[in-house]
Design brief:
mainly alpha
Length: about 425
Amino acid sequence: MLGIFLGLALLMFLAYRGWSIIWVAPITAGVVALFGGLDLLPAYTDTYMAGFVNFAKTWFPVFMLGAIFGKLMEETGAARSVALAITKVIGTERAILGVLVAAAVLTYGGVSLFVVVFAVYPLAIALFREANITRKLIPATVALGAFTFTMTALPGTPQIQNLIPMAYYNTTPTAGAIMGTVAGLFMATAGYLYLRWREKKLKAAGEVYDEPKDQNIEVIDESKLPNVILSFLPLVTVVVTLNVLDWDIIPALLAGIGLIMVLNLKMLSKFIGAINSGASGSVVAIVNTSAAVGFGSVVRAVPGFEKLTDFVLGIQGSPLISQAVAINVLAGSTGSASGGMGIALEALGDQYYQIAMATGISPDAFHRVAAIASGGLDSLPHNGAVLTLLAITGLTHKDSYKDIFIVGCIIPIIGVIVAILFASVGLI
């Protein structure tokens, strides 16, 4: 097991230092293989690459189509139209709630997290300026809406973190509907109350809105945005076709993409650029996650894996607890929710499924706990989405990470506990 722990420690350290997991994962997998007595070259060309390729084969269409869908929503202005309408309804006096709900609706509708940040930020600036709330709370507000309950907890979300467990547990996107909904409501409510408390505390300390420096904040021209009802339709289409009509995620995303294009034909000139950009961006995302899964394949192949399995599965209490711990730790190590989940389920998914069959615990419960757990420690400082969010808002870790950590790590971890408690009494 020494090689496994050394490999994981090295993977975590290098990822935290900002080194790309694309080349770090095979090197750290080599450490695992070396200590495990495997031949290095076959461990890479056969074991590692088999895990890498199998994951990419299964999920690349979803990564690509999801990225294209999000990019088209961004380029046509549909994402911003939806976000603007929501913030108008909620009002300036509830600026934090408006930004939070706007980000949540877009994420639950299938728009990628990175697109949500770009779409919501100009609206957040306008609302926070009007409400005189410090900009330091914008990253945590967006993170709560986009990186937490709509990404992992709410049943039916088309985000990849909710889809990956399906292949391991033979489940659907709505698996664990009761426990997921309760955990999601807890995360949303607790996070919002925390942010309102922080708003009041910071105002009392004299910290209020200040204009960002060296940033050209886009002025939103509402006359150029598409109709809000038509902008909502692609989001609704993806969710309904996936969950109500029980379509596979690929045709569901294709339906959403097709509808965006049909409803915005006057923007035809933007389609090729948006599709190209989305497709290109998806390559990095799928390769990152596939690299992490390949690492998990090597871990599973070494003799020490059996002892690691006994160690993880030997954690006291429900097996849902050990799964949550494993995924949370690995998501934190890689700085990636999908990457950490990929390593854990690639290595231990079969064992947990067999446990589900033997103990009578529903695979739906394992699915939902896996999804929620992936969205806990993934939001550590080296997470790519966190870094992007801070870069776009022009803020630093010192300015805003404390609040991101509370709403993006601590509250989701408590949310996992809530979900496990509900599963333990049969409310799945």
